[in-house]
Please model this.
Amino acid sequence: MKNYFYDLVLIIKNAVKKEERFTAWFEAESLDYARFNCGNIRQAGSVDQQYISIDLIAGQKHASCKLGLANNSALDKATILDAIKTMRHQIAECADDPYLMINEKDESSEYVATDQLQDKTWIVQQILHEAQGLDLVGCYIGGPIYRGFANSFGQKNWFQKSSFVLDSSVYHSGDKAIKQSYSDTIFNIEIFQRKIEEARAGLRLFDQGTKTIKPGNYRAYFAPSAVQEILAMLNWGGFSKKSLETKSSPLMPLYNEQKGLSKHFSLSENISGGVGPNFQSQGFLKPQNLSLIEHGKYKNSLISPKTAKEYKLDHNGADDDEVMTSMDMAGGDMDEKDILTTLNDGLYINNLWYLNFSDRHNGCLTGMTRFFCYTVKNGQREAPFSVMRFDDSIYRIFGDNLRHITKNREMLIDNATYDERITSCAIVPGIIAENVRFTL
Model:
């Protein structure tokens, strides 16, 4: 695939005129998938797709296009040449772009991860075997993802890494199910077996009936999937330098040192530990690890080249939307086996959804519990509880009221497959927080 991309770059390079420049962004994947229902395969197959986005530049004017490719450079050549001719006509009608950003440095790089992902047939067989007798529904997707960048200054970047996502639920009855996600770069059967054992235990707890709890403040454990949902809201403009400059970031009080978070809370953009490239679509490189919150204090922002130019700053290779693509929250000292005993009396929150800001400027969030959430009494599972809404502040959950963080962390890869798989992920632990506000 890499040599194929370089062949396409050569076609573009030979087609542009002396006074023209170009950038090329390449996206491709080889995807295997299987859809499950009632613990059986209902659909399976594979998808191979390749796209290239070309930006043709003349002075401060430019035009772009995205092309679907045939994975055959001889066939793709005519498509690319026609697109370049069309863009030339478009440029003639364009105005100058004052924020045009081009990386004129040669920051070439190449990363090809060792493919540890096992044979797709073996993985699916393990899923079917462990799920015997369960109404497991969901989808497995896995395989390599490719990204490439090149420009007329000679820069070439290549990234290749395999990963998988098993996004599934084990259905009980009515609106009751145990939602689970397992994703990584290698399928560990022991981890999957533990998840299935947890699902079976959850089904037995559902058999006891659902409990209704009153609104109030509760000690709560948030599983990694729930923690990720909360952090995803912070990622929505929280670390964007543009949002900070326009005073729209939910982390303004933290940035201005008006409020703080727990000294045990640290968060970074860890590109080296993720499933995406260390370069973005304009060819600018990202640091391997960028600390954003360090021991409860705001450390760095995500700064795109465009924002850097607008505010006369140095950028750190962030994409235009200035969000984390490889979130990494530091673990703590609580063993996974001690979660229930440490929680003692409280709520175990597996999943959250419908999150939104109730007061964005003060970092206040609201959302609903989802799927398998249950009460804990004297360190033992008691009963599932009906859906509840929480409304609280990140400065309480990750600040004054944060009590424990698990040692174990989970990789959660974005399961979106609109057009193509997403190379965003989060590595997060579970947490216990005091006095979480549940309103109805």
